[in-house]
Write a structure and sequence with these properties.
By secondary structure, the protein is of the alpha+beta class. Helices cover 29% and strands 24% of the residues. It has a six-stranded antiparallel sheet, covered by helices on one side. A three-stranded antiparallel sheet has the order 2-5-8, with no helix packed on it. Helix 3 runs parallel beside helix 4.
Length: 208
């Protein structure tokens, strides 16, 4: 008989339309079957992204023995991305005119006015580099930003509303994108920096 927790986890993945196996890669630890429910830190962020883009408006994180500093760091980056676009997540409508051409890739989107949130994911392919082409119709030239990296990665135009996306390595499984013209205003409103991955170290010689 499948344990109750395993039943719940299986149903959770089925509800999101995901295969469960990509997350069940944590090494077993002690007597607990951690490979069943303790995801690797690199993979845990995809729970949050897929849940948000599928209508979940709250998250609770349990401190299993698999939760560590790296997982907190990666999760914090996801929450930082959510802070920039939380209004679109909570009140946006499903974007149904998106298309992704790429093996095993899927796309989910939310729209609010002229802004879009797009999640492109590939949780199955085992090759190091996967390439897909995202199509998102626009009425005017519109910049595309990577929300997790907080940087511009391209621009869509009415005559060519496509952008090529690459997933590098087996731990790089999704791209979380903002497509719109209010990027700077959203950064200021959220109190965020352009790229949180690049933080300059203070010049200690000038501090004393």
């Amino acid at each position: 008989v499948e344990p109750l927790w395993d039943q719940y986890t299986t149903l959770y993945y089925e509800e999101l339309g995901l295969r469960r196996s990509i997350y069940d890669t944590a090494a077993p630890s002690g007597s607990r079957r951690s490979a069943n429910y303790a995801p690797m830190p690199e993979h845990a962020r995809y729970y949050l992204l897929e849940s948000a883009m599928n209508g979940v408006q709250g998250q609770m994180l349990f401190r299993f023995h698999g939760l560590d500093g790296k997982q907190l760091q990666l999760n914090s980056r996801v929450f930082g991305a959510f802070a920039l676009v939380d209004d679109i997540i909570t009140t946006g409508d499903r974007a149904r005119d998106l298309k992704i051409d790429g093996p095993e890739m899927h796309v989910r989107g939310l729209a609010q006015g002229g802004e879009r949130l797009v999640l492109v994911g590939d949780y199955y392919t085992k090759t190091d580099t996967r390439t897909g082409v995202l199509t998102c119709p626009v009425k005017w030239a519109t910049p595309v930003y990577d929300l997790l990296e907080r940087r511009k990665i391209g621009e869509l135009k009415p005559e060519n509303p496509t952008i090529e996306l690459q997933l590098q390595g087996l731990d790089d499984r999704a791209r979380f994108l903002y497509i719109g013209s209010r990027w700077e205003k959203r950064l200021v409103a959220a109190g965020g920096m352009e790229n949180p991955a690049v933080i300059e170290k203070p010049d200690t010689a000038k501090m004393y």
